[in-house]
Amino acid sequence: MKYLELLHQLKIFRKKDLEAFIKETNATKEILRRYRKQGLISQVRRNLYVVTDLATKSSLAGKFEIAGQITSSSTLSYHAALEYHGLAHQIFYTLPICSKEVFHNFDYEGITYMYYPLKSDEGIVTPNTDSFVRVTDLERTIIDCIDRIDLSGGIEELVHCLAIITYVDENKLLKYLDAYHKQFLYQKTGFILSYFQNEMRLSDSFFDFCKSFFGKSTRYLTYNSESDTYFKQWKLCAPQNILSFLEQGQKEHV
């Protein structure tokens, strides 16, 4: 049991982390086998382990910490980032994780970890209090979620999350928009955030900038039957009043 204190300090680890102290591959395998059998550790996925809380029999590492250790670049993104930042309106049991390295989706302790490609390192932070975690900052999370509304939990969930925010860094929003440089993303961002301009303290020039990238075609914010109203200044079809989602009752958790 002499390695158990070390593993508690690590909390979440790989085989190589333990082998660095044992110095022998077969002995490392045997200790991992024995600790798993005794319920002292649990295997999250291939070559990723967590120490077990003996009182609760659950992992000492939380879902966000596990997500941050799946690969060297795995990052809480989309709705997972909204939840980490304390903005989520609903609790989801799937975590979208962006990573440069591909991994297979997997389930652990009731959570499904879903892979999506990481397109940029811009705006990724490791909080001072969570050294295991990588997460998109608030501004990139907003842009990512508007880019992939489906991965933010849908337009209703996204509106609920945005309504909580009281300030954003406008320059960061512009930087991330420029990094993606997608015409429709400028369009959607300007439209959606115009409902929260005062709360987020966004300037008129921010929205003028978004409008400068419009094309000639009309786009749909969500599926056609829901986006039934045309907004001329944004050349966009969207629900008549997205703020009405705030007045609707909360749906069941997903």
Keywords, separated by commas or semicolons:
254 residues; alpha+beta; 4-stranded mixed beta sheet; 3-stranded antiparallel beta sheet; 11 helices; elongated; disordered C terminus
Secondary structure elements and pairings:
Blueprint: H1 4-10, E1 12-13, H2 15-22, H3 25-37, E2 41-45, E3 48-51, H4 63-67, E4 75-76, H5 79-84, E5 94-99, E6 106-108, E7 111-117, E8 124-125, E9 135-136, H6 138-147, H7 155-162, H8 170-180, H9 183-194, H10 197-200, H11 204-211, E10 219-220, E11 229-231, E12 236-238
Parallel strand pairs: 5-7, 10-12
Antiparallel strand pairs: 1-3, 2-3, 4-5, 6-7, 8-9, 11-12
Helix pairs in contact: 2-3, 6-8, 9-11
Task: Please state the overall shape, judged from the principal axes of the Cα atoms.
Answer: elongated
Number of strands: 12
Distance N terminus to C terminus?
40 Å
Structural class per helix/strand content? alpha+beta
What is the H/E order?
A: HEHHEEHEHEEEEEHHHHHHEEE
Total count of domains: 1
Largest sheet: 4 strands, mixed
Strand order of the largest sheet: 4-5-7-6
Which percent range describes the beta-strand content? 15-25%
- Give the proportion of residues in helices: 25-40%
Provide the gyration radius in Å: 22 Å
Task: Explain the overall architecture.
The structure is a single chain. By secondary structure, the protein is an alpha+beta fold. It contains 11 helices and 12 strands. The protein has one domain (63-247). 36% of the residues lie in helices and 16% in strands. The strands form 4 sheets. A 4-stranded mixed beta sheet has the order 4-5-7-6. Strands 1-3-2 form a 3-stranded antiparallel beta sheet. A 3-stranded mixed beta sheet has the order 10-12-11, with helices on one face. Helix 2 (15-22) packs across helix 3 (25-37), helix 6 (138-147) crosses helix 8 (170-180) and helix 9 runs antiparallel to helix 11 (204-211). The longest helix is centred in the first third of the chain and has 13 residues, at 25-37. The two termini are 40 Å apart. Mean pLDDT is 92; it is low at 249-254.
